[in-house]
Amino acid sequence: MDFLLRKTARLCLLLVFTLLLSAVSADCIQVLLGESATFPTTRNCSKENAELIHRRRDNSNRTVARYQGGKWSAASGYEDRVDQGKTVTLNNTNINDNGLYELPCFETATELDVLPFHVVQVVVGQPVTLQCHYVTTNKKVECAWWEKDGKLVFGTNFTSGEIKLDPSFKGRVSLADKPLDLGNFSATVQQFRQEDGGDYICYVQVDRKKETERRIPAATRLTVNKLTAAGCAGYKVSTGFLVAVLLLLCVALCFICYRRVTPDRIL
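Now predict its structure.
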């Protein structure tokens, strides 16, 4: 019996060690679709002919850049997206850039997540909903949260009921009703402010998994719509003023024409 307990304990320790190792085996870079991704590890890799290899999620491999003569240069197929320099920066990212990036100088790989997003234009003072949906069938969602430019905006733990939010959003943000039943983790921000503009990312954590394994269902970029209600009123006033000026010009033109024609009629 003691033997079985000791063996079970060893297996549990091995499992924990494996999970911890997998959790730290890769750094992570997140960028919005179309933006640039810089790989900091390439600055510390000066091995001649070193290559930055992209391990795609379909198990295919591609060389992104190669280190030669003291600088990184673009590999075939990346000439228009990688510039020469001390660090590799991948420009104009697309959805196929997702995956692991490996260097011979380091055992740790870098994972790149390219996030599709949609742009929402918002009028100051009006509410806006940040859409976020995730399939919750047969899954236990522990928590869901929104971050703006890397900082927590609003988050809730469904197990403990704990809610965290940025003080500037206090009383202005709420989650959709019955998120676990409907898989709807959309958050609504009331009374949108100028400073609320920016990039928002929704995260969902499932079944107590590690932070590095969190799901990313949605990303939204909020931009301020300058055509506010006051702006529309100002536009109407400007149009009315323009019409009045045109009418005055027409009257003046008619008067000038009349003065020129009248002498001919008298003669």
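The mean pLDDT is 80.
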